[in-house]
Amino acid sequence: MLGKKLVTAQKRGETRALCLGLGMVACSMMMYFFIGITIVPFYTKSVWTTESVCKVLKANIKDKVFCPNSEGSEDEEIFPYPCLQVWVNLTASGQEVMLYQTEDTLERNPKCSYVPDKLENSKEVKAQIETIASNFKKYQTFPCYYDPGGTQTNVILSRLYPSKGLLFAFLWPTLMFTGGCLIVVLVKISQYVSVLSAWQ
């Protein structure tokens, strides 16, 4: 009687462990699919792939310049904020080019090097942009990214999805997939050993 109960409990435990392993594998596949349709296209779309050194030539703030918050947006409202324009000397080519914060900055507003996220408080936005401009004047040389193919003549300060960020995004689903596969394999080995012991 006790032996039957132990066998039943063992089978239930194996079933639960098997369901857990298969669930982890399924969740990891869903995460792979989500990353593949969201992050990977932005990473492959970016042409600013080569890192170089940029030296600030001038950083100007144009007051009372109306810049659209989003290019091609259905919302026709235009937000006024100080337009920071940073021109740098690209060491790789020796050219004078305009610097943008990220790839998204160029799409949102090609006139400005920086586009603030929150535009509710104009005083805070102005202070933030002035701080950024003073930092550029203080730190004259810094790493930047440019397009080696020459499609884009401008440069960006940082990539939205760098290689390390993409690897980190794939790290968790990979660990989950590996853990799920290990659980399934261990359950199958346990079942095989149980059957082998029963025959012996």
Automatic annotation (TrEMBL):
It is found in: Membrane. It holds the Pfam family CaKB. The keyword Protein transport does not apply. The chain crosses the membrane at residues 20-43, 166-187. This is KCMB1 protein. It comes from the Eukaryota. InterPro entries: K_chnl_Ca-activ_BK_bsu (IPR003930). The gene is Kcnmb1. GO terms for cellular component: voltage-gated potassium channel complex. One of its GO terms (biological process) is detection of calcium ion. Keywords: Glycoprotein, Ion channel, Ion transport, Membrane, Transmembrane, Transmembrane helix, Transport. It is a multi-pass membrane protein. The keyword Glycoprotein applies. Belongs to the KCNMB (TC 8.A.14.1) family. KCNMB1 subfamily. GO terms for molecular function: calcium-activated potassium channel activity; potassium channel regulator activity.
